[in-house]
Design a protein that fits this description.
Length: 515
């Protein structure tokens, strides 16, 4: 088939049913929930409805937290390396079912096959990492100022982790949180995006199998399909020790203060408005490849998607010409087709937001150099296929400073490096960033304290596609949380500082005498 041919909703439903069954999900009736209630599973490939699934009631959600809390009391005393055995089994099952899961990701999120498989690989990478971590939950031993005393810290399981995930990484972000939470001793209650319930059912079934295979408590994982009310319930429930939430800044603004009000812990991974600075010494061919993957890949629907290009004025015309040429080669269409590089947007809302942003950019004096137009509307009127857009902007106006979750790349120019950095940091979000340069001074300055203000700062690669080994997250409106690798595990545990006196005396710290 060619990208112009699309599977039908019925074919996609059959495919999803088969993959779900293989992952151990019981048969789902097409209308498991009456119309107007529950969760509607759609496929962005056609815009058609796959299933109507029942949503969890607030009573069910409450019961899930109660069960998870009971599991916590058991799990927290299981030695961490044995907790790792569960995650090891999960990783094996995810690998065994990688093609099934990738198909479900493509059906439900619209990702091209290679990216869908990459997302599944991100899950298994995460399991590998967490298994190693299960033997490395290190605390420090500090030099104690008192004789005959020992000062050290111990890391303990925290409690039940609530995990809210977004449609665009329906399974990887769950795995970032769940693999780490489980080795840290925390059960997980997961509310996936309403737009991606099927991949969630598959992951839940595979984890349930890993739990059964390793004899772990069944309630270590609870899946709650539902809308905003479920997220609010988790935000307000004091038994949810950590709420890890990925999504929009708007969502974070609602969830963050509610968790803070009960002194709960929050890990926020919100919007990005990621930029790349391109300096005159950059290797332009490599730069173009890096830019196109980051800006047009995943149809512009990653939180790490490249949205702003800050180019030196001397090379701006040459670079934008090359980018426009590369964009002209991008095949938009059926994400199952190996020749396709850009699949559908998640839905009509994303399309409306894109159109609105392009109108605003034009009103601000911007010129659309390429893209922005709809494709395949005749074949699939309820789906949204668009050509990724490149827009030259005269200035960093309000629309450029906002995150639009669609494939729009704004191009801005600069004269001095300081000007480039000021434009770069002149947005409310602070997730990912990169610089393309062969000048070491520029590269190091970009990575320095007065350089990029983002949680991720790269040199000569784009803003998206991070490995799991590093900590993932960002500053400012991105929310400050860090997930996946490095020492992000610390958010999932509580630290106890221990002072042990093994002497016969009782010296007080700071030289205090008392009596
Ligand atoms: C996201 O878009 O929410 O760095 C996560 C990346 C991926 C993760 C993106 N590894 O692009």
């Amino acid at each position: 088939s060619t990208p112009a041919q699309l599977p039908s909703t019925e074919e996609l439903r059959d495919l999803a049913a088969d993959r779900l069954r293989r992952c151990g999900v019981g048969t789902i009736g097409e209308d498991a929930a009456p119309e107007g209630t529950g969760i509607t599973a759609r496929t962005p490939l056609t815009g058609g409805v796959l299933y109507r699934l029942p949503a969890a009631t607030t009573e069910e959600a409450d019961a899930a937290v109660t069960a998870a809390e009971a599991a916590f009391r058991e799990w927290r005393t299981v030695p961490a390396p044995r907790r790792g055995a569960l995650v090891k089994r999960l990783g094996e099952l995810l690998t065994e079912h990688q093609d099934d899961l990738a198909d479900l990701v493509t059906v439900e999120a619209g990702k091209i096959r290679s990216e869908a498989l990459g997302e599944v690989r991100e899950m298994t990478d995460m399991c590998d990492f967490a298994v190693g971590l299960s033997r490395q939950l290190y605390g420090r031993t500090m030099a104690c100022e008192r004789p005959g005393h020992r000062l050290a810290e111990t890391w303990h399981p925290l409690g039940v982790a609530g995990v809210l995930t977004a449609f665009n990484f329906p399974v990887a972000v769950w795995a970032w949180n769940t693999a780490v939470a489980l080795v840290c001793g925390d059960p997980v209650v997961w509310k996936p995006s309403e737009q991606t319930p099927l991949t969630a059912l598959a992951c839940d079934a595979l984890l349930a199998r890993a739990i059964a295979d390793t004899g772990a408590p069944a309630a270590l994982h609870r899946l709650l399909l539902g809308g905003r009310e479920i997220g609010e319930l988790l935000a307000d429930d004091p038994r949810i020790a950590l709420l890890s939430a990925t999504g929009s800044v708007r969502m974070g603004r609602q969830v963050g203060p509610r968790v803070a009000a009960r002194f709960g812990r929050c890990l926020l991974e919100l919007g990005g408005n990621n930029a790349a600075v391109v300096t005159p010494s950059a290797d332009l061919d490599l730069t173009v490849r890096g830019i196109v993957f980051s800006a047009a890949g995943t149809a512009g629907q990653r939180c790490t998607t490249l949205r702003r290009l800050i180019v030196h004025e001397d090379i701006a015309d040459r670079l934008t010409e090359k980018i426009a040429h590369a964009y002209g080669q991008l095949r938009v269409g059926n994400p199952f087709d190996a020749a396709t590089l850009v699949g559908p947007l998640i839905g009509p809302g994303a399309h409306a937001a894109m159109d609105k942003a392009l109108d605003a950019a034009r009103a601000d004096g911007g010129t659309v150099l390429t893209g922005g137009d709809r494709r395949l509307a005749d074949l699939a009127p309820d789906a949204v296929y668009v050509r990724p857009a490149v827009v030259r902007m005269p200035a960093q106006t309000a629309i450029v400073r906002a995150e639009t979750f669609a494939p729009i790349l704004y191009v801005l120019t600069y004269r001095t490096f300081d000007e480039a950095l000021a434009l770069h940091n002149g947005v409310p979000q602070g997730l990912s960033s990169s610089i393309f340069t062969r000048d070491q001074r520029e590269a190091e300055r970009f990575l320095a304290a007065d350089g990029s203000d983002c949680g991720i700062a790269n040199v000569n690669i784009g803003t998206s596609g991070a490995e799991i080994g590093g900590a993932f997250g960002g500053e400012k409106e991105t929310g400050g949380g860090r997930e996946s690798g490095s020492d992000a595990w610390r958010s999932y545990m509580r630290r106890a500082t221990n002072t042990v006196n093994y002497s016969d005396a009782l010296p007080l710290a700071q030289g205090v005498t008392f009596g």
